[in-house]
Amino acid sequence: MTHAIRVHATGGPDVLSWEDVAVGDPGPGQVRVRHAAVGLNYIDVYHRTGLYPQPLPFTPGVEGAGTVETVGEGVSGLKAGDRVAYAGPVGSYAEARLIDADKLVALPDSIGFEDAAAMMLQGMTAHMLLRRVYAVQPGDTILVHAAAGGVGLIMCQWAAAIGATVIGTVSTEEKAELARAHGCHHPILYTKQDFAEEVAAITGGAKLPVVYDSVGKSTFLKSLECLRRRGMMVSYGNASGPADPFPPTLLAQKGSLFLTRPTLFDYIATREELEQASAELFEVVGSGTVRIEIKQRFKLAEAAEAHRALEARQTTGSTVLTV
C-alpha cells in the first residue's frame, strides 16, 4: 500500500496525518510517479492552515522528483523509468501520485532527485522574480527579504551572477554568514537593525528599483520606504502573516510605486513557459552558478516536524522530505 500525508481539517502541524492511500492507474494524459524526494515550501503551510484554501481532504505539497512508473493513454515523450521533476499541482506529500504529464519536466542526469525536489518551486520562483516580474540588470541594487531561506539563497546567487548588488535581510549572524557566502553583498540583521535605514545608507539615499518581499505583514510597509520613485514592490509571500490593507493612494504618496503579487503558476501556465523556466534553472544549477543548499532533511512521514521547524524559522536554505 502507498502512503501519503493527508489533511482532513485545516490547522496546525498536527493535522498532517500519515495514511494508506490508493493511487490507481494513470488516466489519459496522466503519469504515475514514484517519488524519491519532495520539497518543503511555505505555501504548504498556507494550504495546511487554510490561508490558501484547498478542498478537503487533500494531500499537501507542490513539488517533487522521482521516476515514472507507468503512463496513461496519449502520453508521448515519457516512459517508465524516466527521471522527472515538477512544481505543482498540490499533492506531492506522497510516496507515489498521479499527475498530468504536461506538468513534468525531464531531469538532467547531472541533477539528483533531492536537489531537484528542493529547487523546482523555489528555483523557478527565483527565475520568475529576477527575470520576468522585474528583469534585474547589471548594476541594479536589490533587496531580498529572508535572504538565507530556500528562495533567498537562490536569488542572491543568481542576482549576483547577473551583476546586481544584493542586500538581504536575515534574523541571525549565522544566517548573515550563510547569505554572504551565497552572493548577498550586504546582509542586514533585521532583529538589530532598521532595514530601511540600512538600505538608505548603503545606497547613499538613492534607494532601490525593486524589493522582493516574502515575509508580508511585518516588513511590507517598511519595504515601501526602501523604493525609489517608480520602484516596484514584489510581494510573493506571507511568512509573518498577510500584509494589512492600505489605500492605493499610499503608492502615489511614496513616489508612484508599482505593486505586484505574482504567483509562479501564472508564469509557467503554458508548456513553453514551463520548459523555458526549468531549462534556465537547470542551466544555472548545472553550471555551478547557483548551488542548491539542502540544510534539512526529514522523512516524509515526519512532515509535521518539518512544518514546525519551518514556521519557527529554524530552517535555512532548502528542506526536503525523503521518501
Automatic annotation (TrEMBL):
<protein>
    <submittedName>
        <fullName>Quinone oxidoreductase</fullName>
    </submittedName>
</protein>
<dbReference type="GO" id="GO:0003960">
    <property type="term" value="F:quinone reductase (NADPH) activity"/>
</dbReference>
<dbReference type="GO" id="GO:0035925">
    <property type="term" value="F:mRNA 3'-UTR AU-rich region binding"/>
</dbReference>
<dbReference type="InterPro" id="IPR020843">
    <property type="entry name" value="ER"/>
</dbReference>
<dbReference type="Pfam" id="PF08240">
    <property type="entry name" value="ADH_N"/>
</dbReference>
<feature type="domain" description="Enoyl reductase (ER)">
    <location>
        <begin position="11"/>
        <end position="321"/>
    </location>
</feature>
<keyword id="KW-0560">Oxidoreductase</keyword>
<dbReference type="GO" id="GO:0070402">
    <property type="term" value="F:NADPH binding"/>
</dbReference>
<dbReference type="InterPro" id="IPR013154">
    <property type="entry name" value="ADH-like_N"/>
</dbReference>
<dbReference type="InterPro" id="IPR011032">
    <property type="entry name" value="GroES-like_sf"/>
</dbReference>
<dbReference type="InterPro" id="IPR047618">
    <property type="entry name" value="QOR-like"/>
</dbReference>
<dbReference type="GO" id="GO:0005829">
    <property type="term" value="C:cytosol"/>
</dbReference>
<dbReference type="Pfam" id="PF00107">
    <property type="entry name" value="ADH_zinc_N"/>
</dbReference>
<keyword id="KW-0521">NADP</keyword>
<dbReference type="InterPro" id="IPR013149">
    <property type="entry name" value="ADH-like_C"/>
</dbReference>
<dbReference type="InterPro" id="IPR036291">
    <property type="entry name" value="NAD(P)-bd_dom_sf"/>
</dbReference>
